[in-house]
Amino acid sequence: MVVRTPQQFKEMQDIDVKTEHQVTKIDSKGKRIEVVDLARSENQWVSYDKLMIATGARSRRLNLPGSDAKNIFTLKDLQDGLRIRNYIDEKRPESAAVLGGGFIALEMCEAFRLRNIETHIFCRRNLPAGNLEREISEKILNELKENGVDFLTEHEPAGFKTNSNGEVTIFETDKASYQVDMVLMAVGVVPNVEMAKEAGIELGKTGAIKTDFTQMTNLVDTYAAGDCCEVFNLVSQDWVHTPLGDIANKQGRVAGENAAGGKAVFHGVVGSAAFKVFELEVAITGLGTQVAQQYGFDVNSQIIEAESKVGYMPGSKRMLMKLIFDRRSGRLLGAQMVGKEGVARRINTLAVAIHQKMGVDEIAKLDFAYAPPFSAPFDPILIAAEQAVKKLRQ
Amino acid sequence: MVVRTPQQFKEMQDIDVKTEHQVTKIDSKGKRIEVVDLARSENQWVSYDKLMIATGARSRRLNLPGSDAKNIFTLKDLQDGLRIRNYIDEKRPESAAVLGGGFIALEMCEAFRLRNIETHIFCRRNLPAGNLEREISEKILNELKENGVDFLTEHEPAGFKTNSNGEVTIFETDKASYQVDMVLMAVGVVPNVEMAKEAGIELGKTGAIKTDFTQMTNLVDTYAAGDCCEVFNLVSQDWVHTPLGDIANKQGRVAGENAAGGKAVFHGVVGSAAFKVFELEVAITGLGTQVAQQYGFDVNSQIIEAESKVGYMPGSKRMLMKLIFDRRSGRLLGAQMVGKEGVARRINTLAVAIHQKMGVDEIAKLDFAYAPPFSAPFDPILIAAEQAVKKLRQ
After folding, report:
1. Of A128, A189, A252, A265, which one has the fewest beta carbons inside 10 Å?
2. B246 at interface of A, judged by CB pairs closer than 8 A
3. Cα distance from A33 to chain B (closest Cα, Å)?
């Protein structure tokens, strides 16, 4: 309990927080849960009126020879982070292998390089952040290279060779062997749904818990929120698994309000996210080209490069922006941006546009705040939208 | 011609640019203009098919005893800026009086202080940027004081005493006299409409040229664009005079397209603007409380302070945000923000919301990109909107 202690919960809100108590079973008919007091090794059944499942997700681990070595890490919570930092402080590893190409993998490449660790990132796809648009991923690849990260593509992990101390010394792929002093597996997360499933709680096609817009599951008086459950994507109009902290936070508040007798609704998300890798800001909202096509949209796109502020202002940087829109209606379906300045906070402007189902023609007419330290008279968003409008007219 | 030379205009677009040619009269019936070739002192009449009036605005000058002294400056264009810089370089003034409290006055306070000039700003209102919300202006006042600017309020300018060299040495108000080495008058602008008015072009109640949404004036084949004309405010649904560079730019493109036979429309603005004063970013969109009330809205507002990013991230700063909304419907009417980081680029998100007539309840539900270097899980916009929703329910 980092942000707030159990004592604070008690004093501020009269909430009993039981730490070191593991719930092992849900008896939905009896409306009770089985709880193990880990300190005393005692079991007991606790009854409930309303049940909230917030079991989160866990890091996915590749099951390979040697993958239980003690210097193979995953990163999901604060404890994971502390374990990694302590290992680096104690063992002073000189090299690391990062498996995966998502934003956890990328952020950790930066962290390793800041500690002067030789970093090899192994990616199944041929570009990092491979679920983003190709042009965005290419900029990320470039940033990795400029910061001395060795990007290795299309390697299939085969296993780990360990020393007598139980530590990985060699990482083997289907193509070659690499001597490394530590490994980070950053190959995604798996929702913690086993106990819920056993209790008869329905899962969605993503494998996460299915809820309705009030965060209620199929079981009476039983709610779910956070990384263990699905969320509705307002653009694709489909339930997806998007385990992100801000979504979990919002779902939790809705579930809590409803469990307490309220009538809150969580309408869903458009898919906004941002991360930083070295000096590069990356931000996305809505659907990417491929996903939009999978959902049956007839997709067109427009990519531009522009200055983040008026070119003569100190600190102005080139940024790349891609708009993904419906070929006929011009409705904006998604946007992705990358650059070293003024990127992440621009994306929310287009998140609103996507929420509102705006067309690129309407976006091109928006009145934005212009001042040279922050933007050119035509903001990159307006430039991109105007170019997109020209494609619509063709 | 700074951004592009007459030669470039000719080569790139076959446009003849006549520098040092002053238009002195419009003969709308004869469809011709009187032009003076300033170099040769020759007059001629030039006929036109379509006429575009882009005469801009000029700085307002207070007509006071001594106000023609050569060290009293205004700031509208590049030449004005060069004149001020040259004067400072040559004369090394130790003190300056700035008359006015708008964003030109404030930006110039920063410029003067950077040159170590003792700066006194004289403001009729009791706060700088007095047309903004009081809470925002108070932050600006604080920033001025922290940067050594002497803010003097409720002084009525009386006149200037000059030396034998024709330079101001004393600035007198109704309350006191101040020894100064230079003066900047930054008391607003006046649209250059005299010639247009004489030719029978209709002016709006603001005194600027009245146009329709195609930028056409009341005279046939005659368009106007930029600081000389009005613009439609989409929130107040009224024609206003908002002389800002990005608006001028957009109006010019619409007027040009229509003069060339196209069918472009400029729908109007919501009133977005931003400026920087020392380390402070200030950004606004929509209507302020007073103006909204004048237009008959039943106004409520919500003010919050929040961190610009997650508090533990380096560089996170407190920011202040005020939402102005309709008391009954909750529709967002305006937003103003101030802070040292992450302010200006947040305002456009709310500019879109205002364009779309969104309510604070809808804004509170938006899915924004969350990443600690850029924002807390709940962006300040979401926090402010949620607080506003609570007021609606009362």
Report:
1. A265
2. yes
3. 31
Tell whether B365 is within 8 A of chain A (Cβ). yes
Give the residue with greater pLDDT, A307 vs A146.
A146
Q: Each residue of A215-255: pLDDT tens digit?
A: 999 999 999 999 999 999 999 999 999 999 999 999 999 99
Q: Which of A281, A352, A375 sits opposite B353 (nearest CB)?
A: A352
Distance set, CA B63 to CA A259, B57, B174 (Å): 69, 18, 15
- Fold type of domain B59-189: FAD/NAD(P)-binding domain (3.50.50)
pLDDT at A1: 58
Closest CA to B168 of B156, B144, B185: B185
Looking at chain B, the domain(s) classified CATH 3.50.50.60 span 21-53+192-259, 59-189, 273-393
Q: What is the pLDDT of residues B81-121, one digit of tens each?
A: 999 999 999 999 999 999 999 999 999 999 999 999 999 99
A232 touches chain B (CB under 8 A): no
Give the closest of A351, A369, A374 to B369, CB-based: A351
Contact with chain A for residue B31, Cβ under 8 A: no
DSSP of A175-218, one letter per residue? S-EEE-SEEEE---EEE--HHHHHTTPPB-TTSSBP--TTSB-S
Domain with CATH 3.50.50.60 in chain A: 59-189, 273-393
Residues whose CB falls within 8 Å of the CB of residue B78, separated by 6 or more in sequence, listed in order: B2
Classified by CATH at the fold level, domain A273-393 comes out as FAD/NAD(P)-binding domain (3.50.50)
Residue bearing tokens 């932050």: B139
The model's pTM is 0.94
- Distance in angstroms (rounded) separating the CA atoms of residues A74 and A84: 9
Q: Does A355 touch chain B (CB under 8 A)?
A: yes
Give the pLDDT score at B66.
Answer: 95
Q: Do B349 and A353 touch (CB under 8 A)?
A: no
B104: nearest CA in chain A?
A: A371
Asked whether this complex has an ipTM greater than 0.85, the answer is yes
